[in-house]
Amino acid sequence: MESGSSKPGTPMIRKARNYTGAMSIESIPNFTKPAMALWSRFSSEHKKLLLANVWCGACRHEVTITNFTGAVKSGDLLLVGKCAECHGDVAWVIESA
Ligand SMILES: [Zn+2]
């Protein structure tokens, strides 16, 4: 008695790694501790605004920064990442003073 097994060995593995920027912006693993401390001083709305308004010199307009890391340089919060549109390098300095 055989049940109609259709496709044997169908892979059931799903890659759920769609980081689209809609991920949590409250605790970002790529931030250094001091960067995280500065970052946490911004409201969620402010953070979203900042991340979606990074100037890209290649696109010549504001873009969303992706795959970014955060560090503190001279007391300012420095974000370095990729442009969501052209995937070029973009950087964003947020003065903390
Ligand atoms: Zn760009």
Q: What count of helical segments does DSSP give?
A: 2
- Give a quick account of the main beta sheet: strands, pairing sense, barrel closure: 3 strands, antiparallel
Distance between the termini: 76 Å
Quaternary organisation: single chain
Structural class: alpha+beta
Rg from C-alpha positions? Answer: 20 Å
- The unreliable regions are 16-22
Anisotropy-based shape: globular
In percent terms, what proportion of residues is strand?
25-35%
Draw up the topology in text.
Elements: H1 33-39, H2 44-51, E1 54-56, E2 61-63, E3 65-73, E4 76-83, E5 89-94
Question: What does this entry look like structurally?
Answer:
It is a single chain. The protein is α+β, with helices and mostly antiparallel strands. It has one domain (2-94). The chain has 2 helices and 5 strands; from the N terminus they run ααβββββ. It has helices spanning 33-39, 44-51, and strands at residues 54-56, 61-63, 65-73, 76-83, 89-94. The strands form 2 sheets. Strands 3-4-5 form a 3-stranded antiparallel beta sheet, with helices on one face. The chain is globular, with a radius of gyration of 20 Å. The N and C termini lie far apart (76 Å). Residues 16-22 have low confidence and may be disordered.
